[in-house]
Amino acid sequence: MPTELEELVGFIAHPNPQIRLAATENLVPYSTADPAVFKANDMKPVKNLKLLIRDHPKIAEHVLTMLINLSGDPEVLEDLGKDDKFIGVMLDHIVGQEEPNANLLAMLLANLAKMDGLESLLEKKQTAPEALGSDDSVMNQLMDLFVKGQDGAYNKKADFDYLAYVFADLSKHEKIRKHFLTKQKYDGVIPLTKIRVFTEHKSDVRRKGVASTIKNVVFDVDSHPVFLDEEGINLLPYVLLPITGNEEYEVEDTMEMLPDLQLLSPDKQRDSDKKNILTHVETLTLLTTTREGRDLMRRVKVYPIIRETHLRVDDEDVREACDRLVQVLMRDEEGEGAEEKDGGTSNRVHEIDEDDAIIEV
């Protein structure tokens, strides 16, 4: 005899929408408390849930919430991530300007991005809504949703913050990094330059995902000259500002800092998330891989900023990262060949999976 919970799961696919609504609403807590029940009968309940993301918006809301939670299970994650048709439906819905569950779709996509294989998004194409102003590339559409859709500017019911985690996880893959660094034909803009401005955004999720994306893309050492070029991607001010507080520096040091860091307001504060600070310091360390990067950071007085960060951020990981960066900046350049051989950076600087944990709702 099936249990009451198993019977309730069976009502997910009931032809009566009112019964489906009641079933999905009551099942949401069990998607975290008892996920195994959704994997019964060769994961038939999960298969039914995938079909219902196109259902009435309220039913779809409960369904997406359950799928977000269930994607913490490796088997469910694999089932979702390998279903191209399901992912296609997700992508078609998320770009809709009136889609009420766009944020939940972004959260589910962020969980799926942890799977190897989702970098195939780079090859996917679909027609973009005219209001989005994008081309037919799914990656470009997601980027435009993230940039143009912040704070409900594109879809009043969505901010698309969790797409930052999608970019962070996808940027572990070399071909995605290359895409983020390639000027796009439809708007003539390098994608990474669209998101760099969000390193100081009010959203914790947006800041964290963007910081991680930048760090992962900086693993492309061949692109360091354009990262540092003021006429290129010009990453340095966007990485330094979040780790800079309202400290006063020696006049000589201040005058040599980047212009964006010279006239900060008295109420300027560092990022409140210590993990973000750690990520930015490690990005700076990666940018010291080349002699040009090290020379530039010495010239624009990065050291005093790192010194103050070390003093004022009470976190052992941040302090260790600051120590490693300072050692690189303060050392002599003699014997550079040996240092360059291993990339010139600590082997403790790794790509970031953002966020480490599966998102639950």
Automatic annotation (TrEMBL):
| Domain of life per record | Eukaryota
Q: Which Pfam families would you find in this protein's record?
A: DUF383, DUF384
Q: Please provide the Gene Ontology terms (biological process) for this protein.
A: protein folding
Domain Protein HGH1 N-terminal, first and last residues per copy: 94-277
The molecular function terms in GO held by this entry are:
translation elongation factor binding
What are the boundaries of the region Disordered? Answer: 331-361
Indicate the segments forming the Protein HGH1 C-terminal domain, all copies: 283-337
Q: What is this protein called?
A: Protein HGH1 homolog
